[in-house]
Fold each of these.
Amino acid sequence: MDQVIGGWGLTANQTLLGIAALLVAIDFFIATDLPTHVAYVLLSILVALNVDVHPLYRSLAGCGAWFALVVFHYLVWRQVLRRFADRVVTPDRFKDAPQRVVGAVGELKVIEERRMVAIDGDLWPLDPAQAGEAFAAGHAVRVVKVNGGAVQVEAVRTAPESGGRERS
């Protein structure tokens, strides 16, 4: 494996290592685990080919390396990638509407006898579990949870300026 490949100028080990590094680098910019898992397979093959023991033990070493890399991936690497992507690649990451409204302050409205919360121009139904609570129309409320498309709220002391997220 230490022989230079044709006109490429790299050994087979260096080539596999380079391809694996490139695939891991691609994972920084593409939101999928596939390139990294292919890189882990290539690194496991490298381990298996370079361990100087019986072929059965080589296979076990390769499988062990793959298993260790997958455990590392799910326990450490994905969080590192997510933090990197959130800070550098996509600092304004997408949040779907239910995630976005948690913590937002809105105004309670009654429309056709249904209690709704107006947040950033959107109307969210009040959770039926809070039907007995004394929230009157016009009161400012903060969303604490979204449950099945309906919001659970708590009262706030000041009225919202524009139905948006309160700054604290």
Amino acid sequence: MMKKPMTWMFLAAFAGLSLAAAAIMIPRLKVPEAPKMETIYEFTKADIDGKDKKLADFKGKTLLIVNTASKCGLTPQYEGLEALYRKYKDRGLVVIGFPANDFAGQEPGTNEEIKTFCTTKFNVSFPMMSKITVVGESMDPLYAWLLARTDNKPIEWNFAKFLVGADGKTVTRFGSRTSPQDPALVAAIESALGG
């Protein structure tokens, strides 16, 4: 007779935990309305040193936008991103890193600490921007714009990639686990750069 009440108690506790988890996750899954900008070049973002950087400065370039983190299992992708940047920058590719602390607290540092980490550990020379939020209601407007241009699904983890064509409008999304050397990503970059 004791087993039935215990089963119900377990199920009630599990249901309570599930509701609590949903209450935490649902705001993170919400994608805010995207700004009504025609191109990415209309945005101005703070760089890693806190200075305003007009994305219009990259007009005519192909951009690879990546949300980064220093303490993630995918952090070694910095090396591959830097390799892409060095290989294609003379042809018009600009990799831009946007640090974000949205997943498991894997980017806890200050902008200064992030900059030091990227330059000393991975010799990053591509532009790094100030830390932003890429999920939920406080999502940076740039990321809301990028999502609206693709599948409008929330960012799944660190190192999600958005390839923006030189027109500033065409956006292709690649997942976090897509390596910077993945043939599909490299082919998309090559195509965006005109072969």
